[in-house]
Prior knowledge:
By secondary structure, this protein is of the alpha+beta class.
Amino acid sequence: MHARGALFEVGDGHAAQGDGEVDQTAIETSLRGRLQLTVRKDLKLTWPRAETPGAYIAMATDKDLVVATKTAIQEMVNFLMTEKQLDRQSAYQLTSVAGDVAITQLVDGNVGVHVSMPKSLWTSASR
C-alpha cells in the first residue's frame, strides 16, 4: 500500500551488510516484525525520523554526500529543538559532541546519511 506523504517505507531486508551499503551486494532475507507508527499531526517533517530503544535517528538522502550530511544534521538539530526544547546553539553543540553521523548507503544514485543521538543523555542517571 502506498500512502502519499507517509514518510515511511519498509522492505529490502538484509541479514548481513556492512555499514554504508557500498554496492548492491548483501545477504537478502525476508522481513518479519512488529512496527508501531505514531501519527503526529502537530509535526510537519521534511524527512523521516526513527527511534530505537537506545537512540533517536534523523536521516536524509541526496546525490551529493555533503548535502545529505548537512541535511541529516539539520534534521537532528530540528528534532532537538522541537522535541527536547534545546536552543539552536545547544542543539548544534550536542549534535557535534554526542551525535553519531553515519553513511547508510552509497548505491542507487543517492547517498544516505543518518545521525543518531543516544537516548541515555536524557536519563536521570546521566544528568
